[in-house]
Amino acid sequence: MRYKRLKIVEQIIIISLIGVLVPSVISWFVINNISQHSLRKELGYSAQMLAKIIENNIFSVLTTDENRLEEIVISLNHISGEYNQNLFLKDVSINSKVFKDFEIIHPSENENFDKTQRIIYEPQTEKLWIVDKIHNDKFIKAEINSKLIKDNILNNIKGEKNRRIYVVDTTGNLVFTHNYDENDFKKSIKQLPVNPVNNIATRFEEIKNQPRVYLKMDDLGLIIIVNTSEELTKSTIIEARLKILIAFLIAAAVTMFLTLMYSYYLYFNIRQLFKGIISVSRGNYKRQIVPITNIFTPREIIFLSEEFNSMISEINASYKKLQEKNKELKLLDGFRSNLVDTVSHELRTPLTSIRGYTSRLLRTDIKIDEATKHKSLLIIKQQSERLSRMIEDLLVIPDIEGAKLNINLEPVNLLNIIENSIYSVKNIETREIENNIPNDFPLILSDKDRLEQVIINLLGNANKYAYEDTPIKLNALYTEDKAIIEISNSADYIDNNTLSTLFDKFIRLDDKTTRTTRGTGLGLYIVKGLVNAMQGEVILESLENNTFIVRIILNLYNNAREKIES
C-alpha cells in the first residue's frame, strides 16, 4: 500500500501541532497540579495562621473577662445575702459593656450544671457564659456580650469572608462561630480526632482543596476549627487553574499563529523554488525567484534564491551563447552549402571554357588560323583571371572573419588604382566607364592591392547589374581629412530593407532558381571587410531615378600622417 506524501506545509502544521500542543497540554497539567498543590498548601498554611490569630485573640479577650469576673466574685464575697448580691450583679450588668447578665447557681439545685465547665455557649440563644465559683459552693454565671467578644476576637480576620470558623469546648459545644453552617459544623465535629494535640494548629480530615485546621487551647478548654469553604477554593485554586489555562491557550494560539505565518512564508518561498526548477526543466531560463523577505524568511531560503537566480542568469547567458553558436552553425552550414553550390556553379563555366578552347587549340585534325588562336588564348586568359579572382575572394573570407587580414597602409595614388582596375574590368566586358577622378587628387592612406581588389569587385558588380548601353561612372572628392570615392551605375531600384542585406555573404539580387548573372555573392561582403580593415567605410545608396551608388570613404594620407606625428 502506497501512502500519500504530505506537502511541506502539511508536515510543518502536523509537527507544530504535535510539538506545540502536546508539550503545552503536558505543561499545563504539570503546572496546574503544581499550582493546585501549592495553593492547597497555602490555604492550609493560612488556615493554621488564622487559627493561631484566633487563639491569641480568644486568650487575650477571655483572660481579660475572667479577670474582671474574678474581681466581681471578690466583691460578692464581701456582700452578705443573696438578695444584695443579685442587686449588685444587676447594677454591674447595667453599667458593664462586657457582661450583660449574671446568674447565681446552686449546683445542688441544678443537677445538669457541670462544675468543671468554665465557658458555656448556647447555640440556640447565641449566648456566651463564663462560670466562676463563689464561696459556700455557689457559682456565678456571667453572660458575656457575645457581639463585643466576637468583634474583638474576629477583629483581625474581618476579611476572611470565605472561612468558616467554629470555637467549641472540649465536649463539642459551640462557643461562638463565624460563617456558621450546620452541616459543615457537624462534619467538622465528627472528624475531629479523639485525642487532639494541644496548642498546635493541626490539619485534619479534609475535602480535596478545602483544608481544615483545628487548634486545642488547653488552658481554656476550647478548640478552634478553621474550615475552607467552596467559595474560597473557587476563588483561589479554580480561578488560578482557569487563569493558567487561559495563559496556556493564549501562548499556544500565539505560537500556532507564528508557526502558521512561518509555514506560509516558508511554503510560499519553497514553492517559488519549485516553480523555478520546473521552469528550468521546461526550458525557461529567464525565470527569476523573488522570495518574500521578512522576519519569517530563513537565511537559507534567501541564500538559495540568490544562488538559484545567479545560476539561472549564467544558464540563460550560456543558453543565449549556445543559440548564437547554433545560429552561427546554421550560417556556417548555409555557407558550406552555398559555397559548394556556388563553387560548383561559378567555377564550372570558366573551367568549361578553358577546357573547350584548350582542346580546340590542341586539335591536329583541323587547321586553326592565327586570329582564332589569339581569340582562343584571350578567352582562356580571361577565364583564368576570373578563376583567380574567385579563388582570391574565397581565400580572403576566413581572414576577414578572423580579423587576420594583412593590411599594409601606405600613401596611394587613387588615379593609378582606378586606371588599373578599369583595365582589368575591360578585359572581361566591354562597357563604357567614365573616369572622373582628377589628376591632382591627394594621396590616400590605403593598401594598394586590397584597394584595387575592392574597386575591381565594385566595377564587376556594376557591370553585372547595370542596364545595357549605360555607363559606369567613377567620381571622387575629398574633405579636410577624408577621401570619398563614388561608383555609380543605372540599375533597378533596391528598397532599403534589401539594401541593408547586400553586405551579407552569398546575398544576390537574383536567387539561384532565377539566376541571370554570374557571381558568388561574396563581392560586397569582401568589399566591406577590406575597406573596414583599411580604416574606411562603405555606403550603399539606391535612388528612385534608378541610380545605384557605392561610396568608399578612406583617410587622406597627409591628414593621417599629421595625426600620427602629433
Could you explain the architecture of this structure?
The protein has 566 residues and is α+β, with helices and mostly antiparallel strands. The chain has 13 helices and 16 strands. It has a five-stranded antiparallel β-sheet with strand order 6-5-9-8-7, sandwiched between helices. A five-stranded mixed β-sheet has the order 11-13-14-16-15. The longest helix is centred in the first third of the chain and has 70 residues. About 1% of the residues have low confidence.
Keywords:
566 residues; alpha+beta; five-stranded antiparallel sheet; five-stranded mixed sheet; 16 strands; rod-shaped
Task: Give the arrangement of secondary structure elements.
Blueprint: H1 8-77, H2 82-95, E1 99-105, E2 119-122, E3 127-134, E4 138-144, H3 146-153, E5 163-169, E6 174-178, H4 182-191, E7 202-207, E8 210-217, E9 222-228, H5 230-281, H6 299-346, H7 348-362, H8 370-401, E10 410-412, H9 414-426, E11 433-435, E12 444-446, H10 448-465, E13 472-478, E14 482-490, H11 496-499, H12 523-533, E15 537-543, E16 547-555, H13 557-565
Parallel strand pairs: 11-13
Antiparallel strand pairs: 1-4, 2-3, 3-4, 5-6, 5-9, 7-8, 8-9, 10-12, 13-14, 14-16, 15-16
Instruction: Output the helix-strand order.
Output: HHEEEEHEEHEEEHHHHEHEEHEEHHEEH
- Tell me the number of helical segments per DSSP (H or I, 4 or more residues long): 13
Number of strands: 16
Our measurement of the CA-to-CA distance between the termini, rounded to an integer number of angstroms, reads 89 Å
How would you write the strand order of the largest sheet? Answer: 6-5-9-8-7
Q: C-alpha Rg, in Å?
A: 65 Å
Percent range for β-strand residues: 15-25%
Major β-sheet annotation:
5 strands, antiparallel
Unreliable runs? 511-517
Helix content: 40-55%
Shape: rod-shaped
Mean pLDDT: 77
Would you tell me the structural class of the helices and strands? alpha+beta
